[in-house]
């Protein structure tokens, strides 16, 4: 018995000649929020469709809470709440009827259904739209209805395909807060191509491109792994004129020293060397001789966006 | 088993209410009543025939259903595929058979409502004369069964496309072939190249010949089996098509 709520191995799916997903392994435990990252057409949605039982993989196995999705799909699907891409819903139905329909299909009893409907109305802020036809709602509310239908049976697993796509910044912020709030006792998979979203809500990032899994780690570890260890950045609060600049360059014994103005009073000194990694202590000692006030010193950070671009472009060039 | 039927009922219930959420239901019922009575009184010459029966009413049903059943059934799967809600349905803990049967039954029950609303014509003919009510009742049952076969065919074909208009057209054309299956128009196209048993099988599939026997009050087992097996066959193909076409 595995403690993974989602455990998928060797997933493969092709459409005619096109390989959409190529040998992807993915496991998610309770309490984890996995960000599924990839350029458009990378295979994110196809993988999610396989995890939810909408598509059957050509190869590989999926276990949902230790239940084989292929051999017992009805039982396995009970544990999953799913928001498909674009949050489709029956637009002619009113919000209450639509959620009630999904709740009944999820097997909720009369009492628990009415409790859950009330919780959804409050938790997802749908009260004011409760009796409105879905077709009259704004994109943000439609998305909320989609989330509510995925959550109506309080599932252990939540699979959300681009939950914030098309929302305005406030709505995105609200949606991320909601995901954070509910994430403590669930396994959540979110697909997105917005990297800040992964940084904001995910405990793990999975990067795929051309159907292949390219990275699977925490955002922090990914940053560390891709940290630019050859460039040291030292922020000082002093003004640096041409004379000081020459002194710095002559004192620091590394190949490449650049000085950039960062704000009104401060400057940043970038030290790199294509032959060896600059030593932080050595550089600091050298700078101290000039009596400069060091505010911050670290190896240059890269954003998740840069990591993503690097990984996916490396894959393309292969 | 209870849960199985319960979920089929929930699908049926949503679908049936769906007809009444839009103007579709009222427009359909109005058109059905207007056309069926118009055909009975003007084309069927109900009064001129001077006979206390409903032959003039029922004989137009195959032609009426040829257009109206595809109009009811065209959205059943085409719309689910177009709007993407098929993804919601298939990822619910429910089988494709439950979905197909639930949706079909909703449209079939809706047709029953339409037929029920034609009851005044039955009352009228009883007021004017002494008709054989047994034959009329059998004709009503036969008409509903035939409507079911048309609907099952439409439901099945609507799973082929995301476009309701295409679903309507292919269903009407297929329905026309099935109505005319016993006639030379269809048979002559097949007779020249196929063995005799194929021609005879096609001939026995004619909706019109089965329905004309029912109209005469002859409701034999073969007719009942024909329509029921037609419905089951179409729904079975429907389940397979949903499975194959869901992600297209």
Number of domains of chain A: 2
Instruction: Enumerate the spans of chain A where pLDDT stays under 50 for 5 or more consecutive residues.
Output: none
Extended strand count of chain A: 14
Give the helices and strands of chain B as they follow along the chain.
HHHHHHHHHHHHHHH
Q: Which homologous superfamily in CATH is the superfamily of the largest domain in chain A?
A: P-loop containing nucleotide triphosphate hydrolases
End-to-end Cα distance of chain A, whole Å, is 38 Å
Strand order of the largest sheet of chain A: 6-7-8-3-9-10
Average pLDDT rating of chain B: 89
DSSP summary: helix tally of chain A: 11
Point out poorly predicted stretches of chain B.
Answer: none
List the quaternary state of the chains: heterodimer
Helix content of chain A: 25-40%
The coarse overall form of chain B would be globular
- CATH C-level class of the largest domain in chain A is Alpha Beta
What does this protein look like?
The complex is a heterodimer of chains A (318) and B (248). Chain A is built from 11 helices and 14 strands. Chain A has 318 residues and is of the alpha/beta class. Chain A folds into 2 domains: 221 residues, 3-Layer(aba) Sandwich (Rossmann fold), CATH 3.40.50; 73 residues, YebC, transcriptional regulation domain (Alpha-Beta Plaits), CATH 3.30.70. In chain A, strands 6-7-8-3-9-10 form a 6-stranded mixed β-sheet, with helices on both faces. A 4-stranded antiparallel β-sheet of chain A has the order 2-1-4-5. Chain A has a 4-stranded antiparallel β-sheet with strand order 12-13-11-14, covered by helices on one side. In chain A, β4 and β5 form a beta hairpin. In chain A, α3 packs across α4. The longest helix of chain A has 14 residues. The radius of gyration of chain A is 25 Å and the shape is elongated. Chain A starts with a strand and ends with a helix. The model of chain A has no long low-confidence stretch (mean pLDDT 87). Chain B is mainly alpha-helical and 248 residues long. Chain B has one domain. In chain B, 81% of the residues lie in helices and 0% in strands. Chain B has 15 helices and no strands. In chain B, α2 packs antiparallel against α5, α10 crosses α11 and α10 runs parallel beside α15. Chain B is globular. The model of chain B has no long low-confidence stretch (mean pLDDT 89). The chains are: A alpha/beta (318), B mainly alpha (248). At the A-B interface, α2 and α3 of A face α1 and α7 of B.
